[in-house]
Design brief:
Layout: H1 2-33, E1 41-47, E2 51-63, E3 72-87, E4 90-95, E5 98-101, E6 108-125, H2 126-132, H3 134-137, H4 141-149, E7 152-154, H5 157-175, H6 182-235
Antiparallel strand pairs: 1-2, 2-6, 3-4, 3-5, 3-6, 5-7
Length: about 240
């Protein structure tokens, strides 16, 4: 009797999990598919409720306003095309390649891809993402606050290619049904993907800081000789 009860409970839980997985996939699919144009194409691969990737291609795309709950992180990598979006009432535009982390504390709306485009949307469940990126957190502390003010990163062509290669591997793993350590593989690759993104971010930030320092040095030199120039002009 106890064995029967256990099997019944297990079956109910298993059906509940499968039902939620189907609902999650269907919800994301409907959310994204509703923004496709007639010629739009969409490929999707998932790992339960933990990780989902969608490849998009076509002409003109608009992401609907019904955003996912905070327990999921949404990322966008635009390979080709022009990205336009409104964040906290500010309308912004970016030429591809560009990466966006849709942080939940921002008010996002009217996210569109104008003209011909290719892009990838990644949706990660919060617990899965935290586990996957645990090793990187202490290494990016200095950049998190800066990035959270403006969660956009324009990419160079070689940077975009490296990121896309990682995304292709993740997508392939999501579609592989015979892996024994699927979760571990996906978390490892997600972590590598985040390392690559943060590498791009810190490289860009360091170059910006160097430009600022260089400009500051030039200004300091100008102001240091300014009194001499004024004195020489007075003596004439």
């Amino acid at each position: 009797m106890h064995t029967l009860s256990f099997r019944y409970i297990y079956a109910v839980i298993h059906l509940y999990i499968l039902s939620n997985m189907d609902q999650f996939e269907d919800k994301i699919s409907a959310w994204i598919r509703s923004g496709l144009s007639v010629d739009g194409k969409m490929e999707m691969a998932t790992y339960g409720n933990s990780l989902l990737m969608v490849r998009l291609a076509g002409t003109d795309f608009r992401l609907k306003e019904n955003w996912l709950p905070d327990r999921w992180h949404v990322f966008l990598h635009v390979y080709e095309g022009e990205l336009r979006l409104t964040v906290n009432a500010d309308r912004l535009g970016f030429d591809a390649p560009v990466y966006v982390d849709f942080l939940s504390r921002f008010a996002w709306s009217d996210v569109t891809l104008a003209g011909r485009y290719r892009a990838c949307i990644i949706v990660a469940e919060q617990e899965f993402f935290i586990e996957a990126t645990q090793s990187i957190r202490t290494k990016v502390t200095d950049g998190v606050m800066y990035f959270s003010q403006s969660p956009f990163t324009s990419l160079k062509e070689n940077e975009a290619i490296r990121l896309q290669l990682l995304e292709d591997v993740i997508f392939g793993t999501l579609r592989e049904e015979n892996n024994v350590f699927t979760r571990e593989l996906l978390q490892t690759m997600t972590c590598a993907w985040q390392y690559e993104l943060w590498n791009v971010f810190f490289t860009t930030t360091r170059q910006s800081v160097l430009r600022v320092k260089s400009t500051g040095t030039i200004l300091c030199r100008i102001f240091s000789i300014w009194p001499i120039l004024i004195a020489a002009n007075i003596m004439r």
